[in-house]
Design brief:
This protein is mostly helical. The chain is 81% helix and 0% strand. The chain is globular and about 80 Å long.
């Protein structure tokens, strides 16, 4: 099955690998698109960072839901069945997101898309392992080139739409449909091989035992939660955080993922020279250093330099973790690969991303000068009231909704002498998005932007300590490997 054109039982290995890569592009375009529109959603629907974090998180932890329910049954349902479900999910999720009218429909659309993303990995990771049993870590790295590669494509497309004056975030979401149609054409009618576990006669009981009862596997699941948090948590927030600081955040995300794609493409020599455990140790050191540096912000050149170190650090985490488990605990099979992805995405989506949003909300509020904000809100309230009386229809409704938020916060400030954290930022967003012609709009933007940027950067800093734990674990594994004479992959008979 290692051939490019394949003829083994009607299985076309080259076409299946290509189709898998395009399917992964669909998942990463979805990731990049949700990241690119988070700043727009925050303004249009007047969402706080925590709510945006939940939407961004659903676009991640939904991946884990489909992995939990379908990865254990990959051997029996078949990989093609999972790919077909993913195709339907990408179509349905994109449509729900495009037609969304508030937080819950945005949340639902992001969740459906993420479940489709999980189905792609539940099918395609064991597919790549089955197609290339003698070179799993390298081929999984080359397959996973197309997650950052797709983010580059999706991010550049989103930036191009902005540059062309196409401001609609719905059009950006529609980009997901292009690679979805492509992998549907490539894969839906193809014959798939059986999984490696089925081919080797590994029973379901043996697979569950290897996955859930092996100490090394349990340790790697814990590490996967941390490596995924270091990679995907900050990557999810980079566009919105840097956009608030006046930078083209989506282009920084494209830059980070361009480096990741290029390095994964060249994974072969790196894997053979350093071994998977050596790669993981180096990645833990560089990712922590890069993220800490990035959390201090600064000039564009400083941000790019820090982003470079961060990108080099996180680029090999995900595929090398999968390759390590598949090579060192091969009996874990599709279940082991699926559970690794499940833990990684579930922790990022349910814990890391929302928590980073909450940290950003608190830190941003601490940076706001309450007296200045109160003056701006008082000025905005007068302008909004006057303009809303003269403006009929939906535009007038937007002005009146903004006025209510501003009044609520300002009245609380007059009564208590303090501004509430989340409501204050939402009031400023309402003023900015109200359509008012008052000078208070630019004043509100001038106050909120730097605070949002600062809060987001502080949230990056809270993720950095995870790298310290990983350095210890991967360092001990590397030392043990050297004492045993080097890294050795185990093979199923």
């Amino acid at each position: 099955m290692n051939g490019g054109s394949g003829g083994n039982g009607g299985v076309h290995a080259g076409r299946l690998f290509l189709g898998s890569c395009v399917a992964l592009i669909a998942t990463s375009v979805a990731f990049a698109t949700v990241g690119a529109i988070m700043f727009d959603l925050k303004g249009e629907f007047v969402l706080n960072n925590a709510q945006v974090g939940w939407i961004g998180g659903a676009a991640i932890w939904g991946f884990a839901v489909s992995q939990v329910f379908f990865a254990p049954f990959c051997d029996t349902l078949g990989m093609r069945f999972l790919v077909r479900m993913a195709f339907v999910g990408h179509l349905a999720g994109a449509l729900v997101l495009i037609l969304a009218n508030g937080f819950w429909t945005l949340f639902a659309g992001a969740l459906i898309i993420a479940m489709a993303n999980g189905l792609v990995e539940a099918a395609c990771n064991p597919l790549v392992a089955a197609l290339y049993p003698d070179n799993k870590t390298v081929k999984l790295n080359q397959f996973h080139v197309w997650f950052p590669g797709g983010i580059v494509l999706g991010g550049l497309a989103a930036w191009g739409l902005d540059a062309a004056g196409v401001a609609s975030w719905q059009v950006k979401v529609a980009l997901i449909l292009i690679p979805t149609a492509a992998y549907g054409l490539l894969l839906l009618r193809q014959r798939f091989p059986v999984t490696e576990g089925v081919r080797s006669g590994v029973s379901v009981g043996e697979m569950f035992s290897a996955t859930l009862m092996t100490p090394l596997m349990l340790l790697m699941l814990l590490c996967m939660a941390m490596t995924a948090s270091l990679e995907l948590g900050p990557n999810r927030w980079v566009p919105a955080v840097l956009e608030a600081g006046g930078m083209r955040g989506i282009l920084v995300l494209v830059y980070i993922n361009g480096i990741m794609a290029l390095l994964r493409l060249c994974a072969g020599p790196v894997v053979h020279r350093l071994s998977p455990t050596g790669i993981l140790l180096a990645s833990a050191v560089l990712s922590g250093a890069g993220l800490l540096w990035l959390s201090y912000g600064g000039s564009a050149s400083t941000v790019i330099a820090a982003a470079t170190v961060f990108a080099v650090g996180v680029c090999y985490f995900w595929p090398t973790m999968l390759g390590f488990v598949s090579e060192r605990i091969p009996k874990s099979g599709a279940l082991g690969l699926g559970l690794m992805g499940t833990v990684g995405m579930a922790v990022v989506g349910l814990v890391t991303s929302p928590l980073m949003g909450e940290i950003a909300d608190r830190a941003a509020h601490d940076m706001l000068d309450e007296d200045q904000v109160a003056v701006v809100l008082a000025e905005a309230a007068g302008a909004l009231e006057s303009q809303s009386l003269r403006t009929p229809g939906s535009e007038g409704n937007d002005l009146r909704a903004a006025l209510e938020r501003v009044r609520g916060v300002f009245e609380g400030y007059e009564a208590d002498g303090a501004l509430p954290p989340v409501e204050t930022a939402n009031a400023l967003r309402s003023v900015i998005e109200s359509g008012s012609t008052s000078p208070a709009v630019e004043e509100a933007r001038g106050l909120l932007g730097p605070a949002e940027n600062y809060g987001g950067l502080i949230s990056f800093r809270y993720v950095v300590p995870l790298s310290g734990f990983l350095i210890v674990v991967f360092g001990l594994l590397y030392i043990r490997q050297r004492r045993e004479g080097g890294y050795r992959a185990e093979r199923l008979s």
